[in-house]
Write a structure and sequence with these properties.
The protein has about 675 residues and is of the alpha/beta class. The protein is built from 19 helices and 20 strands. It folds into 3 domains: about 180 residues, no CATH class; about 220 residues, Glucose Oxidase, domain 1 (3-Layer(bba) Sandwich), CATH 3.50.30; about 150 residues, Up-down Bundle (Transcription Elongation Factor S-II, Chain A). The strands form 6 sheets. The protein has a 7-stranded mixed beta sheet with strand order 3-2-12-5-6-7-9. Strands 1-13-15-14 form a 4-stranded mixed beta sheet, sandwiched between helices. Helix 8 packs across helix 14 and helix 15 packs antiparallel against helix 16. It is globular. The relative contact order is 0.16. The structure holds 2-acetamido-2-deoxy-beta-D-glucopyranose (NAG) (5 copies). One 2-acetamido-2-deoxy-beta-D-glucopyranose binds next to loops.
Length: about 675
């Protein structure tokens, strides 16, 4: 074990803390570089690997989880600004990066008469303090702010654009309501903030104001905080305005780590930064804006579109500079396959105290670390290397995880939640382990999203995300606090315990199973379904249905060859047993076969990446998965081809169909090799 790990998992489990402050997604990844010396594997120790999961199951405790959460939510921890939280995790190794980060300087939203300049209304952008919840009163709490928002001062008439989705702007256009030269007011949700701002900017809007509709997460849903979990009218929902569907992470160093000396883009050339200002508003401050639209334009989802006769001034002053962020990393060297690693991680930054929005995930990660520490003391050693990562600046644009990826070139991610998302490669394992954990009720496994984008969609590492499906009523607000959590989300820490158990047991399976529980056949099943959807889209848009012939054939070969991996697995079990517990040449043959099965299974994910990346957003390399360019959140399968078809760009479609087919053929041939 290296020094950092010794420190990390030392005698005093208080010092186990990997990270510092907040959030929830953890990662599981497997990294490449195969290993000839697994031929020299050692006898298993006092605590056999087979039993490690059973021992681990008993470790995560509500008492410890609550203690972690108390420590982690005892201040504000905004990425690139607050480092206090790091003290809770000082034992682990901190790695710094220097991304381009903006901090809020000044802001105002004012309604005025465009002719006389007389001010009619000044919006109160302060978030209400809630009596009795000290977290809502921290002086360090952030003002109304969108991370990576454009620093500017604009004025114009107001237009309401519903959720600011592409279809909403189309509706406005069909009613002849232009947003050009106007300030746009939208509701939060449905699509990523970066997408709303980008669409508004492309249509010539001057700025964007965003409020959370009480019907979505406030009084329309139930009692508001502190009487219930839902959002009060005086609460803000902060968010990142970065265009993460173009690329996440540091805007100035796409594709590589934001080290101190890394070459950087000029901020004006960074393609994931918006070009118009935006601000969040509490609903209470948005109400007068909605009222001044009354009678102007068209009724749209219960509100008038405008434009308003009065003008709105939006001042959003942001001070940008290169600032340090801190990822905290721990490592346990694998005993038999040290060059293969599994990563588990979570982010520790937050908009506020961040109980659900970071604290929960980090607490679970800390319990996993504590559990691993106990296993180590019992003599257990993982077969593969385990990396525990607590990354920073996730709320800005998933900066910490992205820079981590760029540095380690490691693989995969898993997070913590009952709303689970996974690469099809890992989904079977996830369901299998979830069945052993009370309350880990996974009825639906989605596709991995932005938390693991750096691993899954850029690096081609099978990833899974487990996220706490708390109520959205405290999302990115000051009252996402310990009290909110203990009163409404997880009073007895049982759900968090389930997450700690589930993520730890998944980690142990991935780290210890002689044969990785990754299923190429399941992946191919998913690819076939996606292909079917693509074919339907193409035939709807275009008369020819033979446009995906190349891919269809490649998928058939892929299916056949994925079965070969299953056959080899069956042969391994039948002829040798997965433990390869024999000697001499027979053992060498067993180990060779086992390694081939493992390599083919986990490297399939990497084989599904295209070094060229997607048109217009080359950072996204995966041919099967990318965030939708019009949602920024929902995963689009066959993203490049789907976009070409939607654009009716058939020449691009044909070229890409050939290219994607070739990539799938290569993957298929790779699955065949033994
Ligand atoms: C912002 O613009 C408004 C309206 O044009 C102007 O009154 C105000 O002084 C400006 N504020 C700053 C800080 O530039
Ligand atoms: C929008 O403007 C066009 C062209 O001026 C006109 O033909 C159409 O009727 C208008 N539509 C609406 C809904 O007002
Ligand atoms: C702006 O002020 C002028 C002068 O008082 C007035 O005539 C006009 O109606 C006002 N505009 C609006 C939109 O209220
Ligand atoms: C598990 O999920 C199902 C389907 O979503 C739901 O009906 C059931 O109540 C859940 N059970 C628990 C214990 O949460
Ligand atoms: C499909 O073909 C029909 C007749 O052959 C034609 O009228 C129609 O425009 C075509 N549709 C598309 C989307 O190309």
């Amino acid at each position: 074990m290296d020094e950092a790990t010794k420190e990390l998992l030392g005698e005093h489990h208080q010092a186990l803390a990997i990270a510092a402050a907040v959030v929830l997604v953890a990662g599981v990844a497997i990294f490449s570089q195969s290993l000839p010396d697994c031929l020299m594997s050692q006898p298993v120790h006092a605590l056999g690997r087979i039993h490690a999961g059973k021992v681990f199951f008993k470790i995560p405790s509500p008492k410890h989880l609550k203690h972690h959460l108390e420590m982690l939510t005892s201040s504000t921890h905004f990425g690139g600004r607050d480092y206090e939280a790091g003290k809770y995790t000082q034992a682990a190794k901190a790695i710094e990066y220097y991304p381009w980060v903006g901090m809020p300087a000044d802001r105002q939203v004012v309604v005025f008469n465009g002719t006389t300049n007389k001010i009619e209304y000044t919006a109160d952008l302060k978030e209400d303090e809630i009596p009795g919840d000290p977290a809502t009163q921290y002086r360090t709490n952030l003002p109304a702010f969108h991370a990576y928002s454009f620093s500017g001062n604009v004025s114009g008439p107001l237009v309401f654009a519903n959720y600011g989705e592409s279809s909403d702007f189309q509706a406005l256009s069909s009613w002849n309501v232009s947003v050009k030269g106007h300030v746009v007011l939208v509701k939060a949700g449905r699509v990523a903030l970066g997408v709303k701002v980008q669409l508004a900017e492309q249509l010539g809007a001057l700025g964007v104001l965003v409020f959370a509709d009480p019907q979505d997460d406030g009084s329309g849903r139930g009692k508001v905080y502190p009487d219930g979990p839902w959002r009060p009218a005086g609460s803000l929902e902060r968010d990142s305005a970065a265009l993460q569907h173009i690329y996440p992470g540091d805007p100035l160093t796409p594709g590589h780590a934001a080290t101190r000396t890394a070459p950087r883009l000029h901020p004006a050339d960074a393609k994931n930064l918006p070009g118009i200002p935006s601000l969040p508003l509490p609903f209470r401050a948005a109400l007068p804006l909605l009222q001044m639209l009354a009678g102007h334009g068209v009724l749209f989802s219960g509100h008038w579109t405008g434009p308003s006769p009065l003008h709105v001034n939006v001042l959003n002053s942001v001070k940008y500079e290169q600032r340090p962020i801190r990822n905290v990393i721990g490592r346990i060297a694998g005993e038999e396959e040290p060059d293969h690693a599994v990563i588990i991680g979570s982010h520790h930054d937050a908009w506020s105290a961040g109980a659900a929005g970071a604290g929960a995930g980090t607490s679970a990660l800390l319990e996993v670390a504590r559990g691993l520490g106990q296993l180590l003391r019992l003599g257990w050693r993982p077969r593969r290397t385990i990396i525990l990562a607590s990354w920073d600046a996730s709320e800005l644009a998933h900066v910490g995880a992205t820079e981590l990826w760029h540095t380690l070139h490691v693989t995969g991610v898993s997070g913590h939640t009952l709303a689970a998302a996974s690469s099809p490669l890992l989904a079977g394992l996830l369901k299998d382990v979830a069945r052993q954990v009370p309350l880990a009720n996974i009825s639906h496994v989605g596709l991995p999203g932005m938390h693991s984008a750096a691993f899954q969609m850029h690096g081609g590492v099978g990833s899974l995300e487990l996220g706490f499906t708390g109520q959205p009523g405290a999302h990115h607000a000051n009252h996402d606090s310990l009290q909110w959590m203990l009163r409404f989300a997880d009073p007895h820490m049982r759900r968090l315990q389930a997450i700690a158990r589930l993520s730890g047991m998944l980690l142990l399976r991935l780290a210890d199973d002689p044969v990785l529980a990754l299923r190429p056949t399941a992946y191919v099943g998913r690819i076939r379904r996606s292909l079917h959807d693509l074919e339907r889209l193409v035939s709807r848009k275009h008369n020819a249905t033979r446009r995906v012939r190349h891919i269809r054939h490649a998928v058939r070969v892929l299916q056949t060859n994925a079965m070969l991996v299953e056959h080899d697995y069956a042969r391994l079990r039948r002829v040798y047993g997965t433990g390869c517990q024999m000697s001499g040449r027979r053992r060498a043959a067993c180990v060779r076969l086992r390694k081939s099965i493992n390599d083919r299974a986990y490297k399939l994910e990497r084989m599904l990446t295209d070094p060229e990346g997607l048109a217009g957003r080359r950072w996204y390399k995966h041919v099967m998965l990318a965030p939708g360019r019009l949602t920024g959140t929902h995963v689009q399968e066959f993203p490049g081809l789907t976009e070409a078809a939607l654009d009716g760009h058939w020449r691009r479609f044909r070229a890409l169909e050939k290219r994607t087919g070739d990539i799938l053929y290569e993957a298929a041939w790779f699955l065949r090799e033994t």
